Amino acid sequence: MPYIRNQQFEPLELQQPLWRYMDFTKFVAMLVTKSLYLTRVDKLCKLGDRFEGSFPNVPEKGFRGFFGETDTERYYTEKNKDKKRFYYVNCWHGNNSESDAMWKIYVRGNQGIAVRSTVQRLRDSLQKAPQNIWIGNVKYLDKFTWRSVPTDPTLHACLAKRKSFEHEKEVRLIWLDENGKRTGHTGQDGKEIPCLLPTLIDKVYLAPPNSPWFKRVVENVLRRYRINTEVVQSDLGSEALSENTL
Questions:
Q1: What is the pTM of this model?
Q2: Which of 37, 40, 157, 245 has the fewest CB atoms within 10 Å, measured from its CB?
Q3: Which residues of the chain have pLDDT under 70?
Q4: Nearest in space to 195 (alpha carbons), one of 221, 173, 180, 176
């Protein structure tokens, strides 16, 4: 079974709604390839947050407890910085409803898509993937500092972000390229993981403002790829209440 429950991660609520925001071309690419695209962790820093994939700070006592009395922060960094190029992630927004902020961050114009799923749907959609995959919540760290060094620092660095990004409420898929790690050969910038899209997709939301013609286009594309799911106009695109109704 490709999905592995990682005991180092906090348990996830299976019915937690998840959202993935994207433009229309990425949505079509997902349908064509029947896959989710995972980005290599050391490439994420080019997508907006230069600290992505970096190792959080650790108090000096944390190093003594993990590596021994004579080891230093430099040793910690050198030991682990090269490993992150073997980890790949796919990011979701965990929220009960759609987010205006996420639309603005990930979509330009009004031809954007948000795929709504749940933790359980995401987990179950990966059952035929050939690789073992973990799912975990991102930890938003005050002053980007761990209280102590985790058992697997490189893995946990994939789930560490600064406190100022807490609004993202990220849930991430993580895949480790075991072959690359063993041989030292860095793979491609991204990895497509096979996914059962009818299982994954609960609903498809369209970016505001509402556009009837774009809704018809998306419905036709979904039918072409035999995905039977509801296409919903964004609630944020609804007409504002008039002053008389206030």
A1: 0.84
A2: 245
A3: 1, 45-48, 53-81, 143-151, 238-246
A4: 173
DSSP 238: S
CA dihedral 97, 194, 47, 101 (to 10 degrees): -10
pLDDT at 246: 45
* Identity at 155, one-letter amino acid code: L
Written as six digits, the tokens of 120 are 């359980």
| Dist CA 180 CA 110 (whole Å) | 40
Q: How far apart are CA 118 and CA 15, in angstroms?
A: 6
* Helix then strand then coil, % of the chain, to nearest 5: 40, 25, 35
What pLDDT does 69 receive? 42
Domain ranges in the chain?
17-238
Q: What span, in angstroms and rounded, lies between the C-alpha atoms of 3 and 175? A: 10
Q: Looking at this protein, which amino acid is placed at residue 186?
A: T
| pLDDT of 143 | 64
Instruction: Give the integer Cα–Cα distance in Å for 116 and 96.
Output: 10
Report the pLDDT value the prediction gives residue 158, as an integer from 0 to 100.
Answer: 84
Give the per-residue pLDDT at 238: 63
User: How far is 112 from 109, CA to CA, in rounded Å?
Assistant: 7
Q: Which two tokens stand for residue 141?
A: 């760290």
- Separation CA 52–CA 44 (nearest Å): 6
Q: What is the pLDDT of residue 65?
A: 44
Number of residues written out for the chain:
246
Q: What pLDDT was estimated at residue 94?
A: 97
Q: Which amino acid is at 132?
A: N
CA separation for the pair 241, 237 (Å, rounded): 12
Rounded Cα distance between 232 and 207, Å, is 9
Which token pair is 85? 């190029």
